[in-house]
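Q: Given only this backbone (308 positions), what sequence would you predict?
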């Protein structure tokens, strides 16, 4: 008979999760609710409260997450935040990543991810990319689409952990294949939502019934989960965030840079970049991406009298 004596939290095989923003918090909650032994940290501590209530351990700082976890998910804002929690460029880095699998879920440049993998593997750690496609609502429902890249051992360590978060996960080969795949997906998303917004703006300025536009779109071949989520928001001028203008603009920048490095033309993306930049300058950075409507309305000018 085998007897396990509990000496404290360290005998549990924890999964770490760093970054509990608009996407990270519901993703981590789905892991916790699925019974994953989870230890979490977020720069704004209050974002950890729902995780604590769901049974996750809340760490005092990033170092504690690495001390307690064998696999650590990073859902962080940018490259600087990722380097900071890893202690990259400091003596802490090797101690934090050695013997652990680090899972990069945020959106950064492909070059950054490839360099990070090299540094982590040199420090005897494992590394996988696992960006996701979807916004806040699919994140809450555990219906994101995952893209996974890395060596076989890292991918095997991560794949089963994504089950409570993603309805499907696709293997994308070696790093940075998953990030590049996400860029291709997001290029379509950004241009599609911008086009949908422009269609509603067109209907508005022609005095058309925008509810009828929504119904026609829903009934036709262009209908999608995205149009059915964003159409009602445009109809109600509801700019509560699912995917923020600021984040869309940063994604747009990264995709455009990747296109330039490959000598690719991206004319639709370039127009979108200008429009989202204008929406940001107008003060709509923290609103949902359909707030690009404000940039379109500003370019058009005031509506004729009597036309709402």
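A: Predicted residues:
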């Amino acid at each position: 008979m085998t007897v396990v004596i509990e000496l404290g939290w360290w005998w549990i095989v924890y999964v770490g999760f760093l970054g509990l923003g608009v996407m990270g918090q519901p993703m981590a909650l789905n892991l916790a609710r699925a019974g994953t032994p989870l230890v979490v940290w977020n720069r704004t501590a209050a974002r950890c409260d729902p995780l604590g209530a769901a049974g996750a351990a809340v760490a005092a700082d990033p170092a504690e997450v690495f001390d307690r976890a064998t696999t650590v998910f990073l859902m962080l804002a940018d490259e600087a935040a990722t380097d900071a929690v890893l202690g990259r460029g400091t003596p802490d880095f090797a101690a934090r990543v050695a013997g652990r699998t680090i899972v990069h879920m945020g959106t950064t440049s492909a070059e950054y991810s490839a360099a990070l993998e090299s540094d982590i593997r040199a420090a005897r750690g494992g590394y996988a990319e696992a960006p996701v496609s979807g916004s806040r609502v699919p994140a809450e429902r555990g219906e994101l689409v995952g893209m996974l890249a890395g060596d076989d051992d890292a991918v095997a360590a991560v794949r089963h952990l994504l089950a409570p978060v993603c309805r499907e996960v696709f293997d994308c080969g070696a790093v940075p294949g998953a990030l590049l795949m996400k860029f291709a997906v997001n290029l379509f998303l950004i241009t599609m939502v911008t086009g949908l917004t422009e269609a509603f703006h067109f209907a508005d300025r022609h005095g058309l019934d925008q509810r009828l536009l929504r119904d026609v779109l829903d009934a036709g071949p262009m209908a999608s989960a995205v149009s059915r989520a964003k159409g009602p928001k445009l109809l109600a001028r509801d700019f509560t965030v699912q995917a923020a203008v600021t984040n869309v603009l940063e994604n747009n920048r990264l995709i455009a840079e990747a296109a330039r490095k490959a000598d690719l033309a991206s004319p639709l993306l370039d127009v979108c970049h200008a429009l989202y930049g204008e929406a940001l300058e107008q003060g709509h950075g923290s609103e949902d991406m359909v707030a690009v409507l404000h940039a379109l309305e500003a370019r058009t000018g005031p509506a004729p009298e009597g036309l709402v």
